[in-house]
Known about the structure:
Helix content is 24%, strand content 33%. It is of the alpha+beta class. A five-stranded mixed β-sheet has the order 1-2-3-5-4, with helices on one face. β4 and β5 (93-100) form a beta hairpin. The chain is globular and about 30 Å long.
Amino acid sequence: MEGYCSFGADGQLLGGDYRPKAIDVGLGIRPQLTGKGHGKYYARAVVAYRLGPYKAQRFRVAIAAVNKRAQHVWRKLGFKPEEAFPKLGTEERFLILYSEANI
């Protein structure tokens, strides 16, 4: 297994504002496979998969503020940060990034 992805509520974290309509995406890659320049391919494949059957118009990802590599991957795909929040019950900060479905 190379990683995992999830959609909907499984891609959400407690503390974020998920009221705007969007498809939530959760993505994790095995640590041994990170840092090799393949993140954009994983992210693009996950979004393309979700585009097909559901015709989603807007995507949203929550990324740990300290995870600069993941932020870079999603920003290169056109995602833009719109919110930062502390995960409920922790001090860890997260960013919520959005993109239209034309990536």
